[in-house]
Specification:
globular
């Protein structure tokens, strides 16, 4: 049984829900996230390398949307879900802002990162390349209901004041820090209040593309000038290979969004027209 007791009087969470089955038991959709710590590190990577990574992932129909002078935006999104309707777990995702199949990226797609996730004219979404979690319930739901590339491995989400120490271990060497898939460490820089992003997800599931709206609320801060550095360990895992292919070993983020007040609803996916 993966569905946990979840009680909230907030109208944000008072939405109709439907029970679906996974290999780890029933899950009610949307999945509700009431208390979450979240840090999103955004990097600029080589556009050609990113296109090759998308092609190897079978997502060549999607085009990197946020581009600048031969480079494109990639997010490393880190979550510590403390109170959710499927229990607590940690997660780290490598996600690419992309346009839906058949849509050529343009400058206005940068602005769509802030647009209403329910806007039928929104074309920008995120395609997730890797999405490790540390519980079987979260892994089964992501893979079976949305086709998300989840796998199970230990994740350490460390942050004290402005100090960040986030580690993603290799499932074949879960206690060996030298073989970690990645580490994100350092000090957060200067900051101003900033919005949280409600992402639209594009994923390939059972022979067709799904689009999934994630409704997000809660205040956050935008940091720049940080000393955060992403390091890839001596891991042979495909996620480590992807990070290396994108040139992220030793990279510093362009900007960081950070919050301890993240709340969200992960909705059922719908076939993309």
């Amino acid at each position: 049984m993966t569905t946990m007791a979840f009680v909230s009087t907030s109208p944000f969470f008072q939405v109709p829900r439907t029970e679906v089955q996974t290999s780890e038991g029933p899950v009610e959709l949307p999945i509700l996230y009431q208390q979450t710590r979240n840090l999103n590190a955004f990097f600029l990577v080589d556009l050609g390398a990113l296109r090759q990574v998308l092609a190897r992932a079978g997502a060549e129909a999607l085009q990197p949307a946020c581009r600048w002078r031969g480079r494109a935006l990639v997010a490393v999104a880190c979550y510590a879900y403390q109170h959710t309707s499927i229990g607590p777990y940690n997660e780290i995702g490598v996600a690419v802002p992309v346009t839906r199949p058949g849509v050529t990226p343009a400058w206005h797609h940068w602005l769509q990162t802030l647009s209403d996730v329910d806007n039928p004219e929104r074309e920008l979404g995120y395609h997730v390349l890797h999405l490790p979690v540390d519980t079987a319930a979260a892994c089964a739901a992501g893979r079976e209901l949305w086709g998300l590339p989840k796998f199970i491995t230990p994740i350490h989400y460390g942050r004290t004041a402005s100090q960040v120490d986030i580690q993603l271990m290799d499932p074949d060497a879960p206690t060996d820090p030298d073989r970690a898939i990645m580490q994100l460490r350092g000090q957060l820089g200067r900051s101003v209040p900033g919005p949280l992003l409600s992402p639209l997800l594009y994923s390939w599931h059972q022979g067709h593309w799904l689009k999934t709206a994630v409704h997000v609320r809660g205040g956050g801060r935008v940091h720049w000038g940080s000393t955060l550095e992403l390091r890839v360990g001596h891991s042979a895992h495909p996620m480590a290979d992807t990070l290396r292919a994108l040139g992220l070993d030793g990279a510093h983020p362009l900007v960081v969004l950070d919050t301890d007040r993240f709340q969200s609803r992960l909705n059922a996916g719908r076939p993309l027209d």
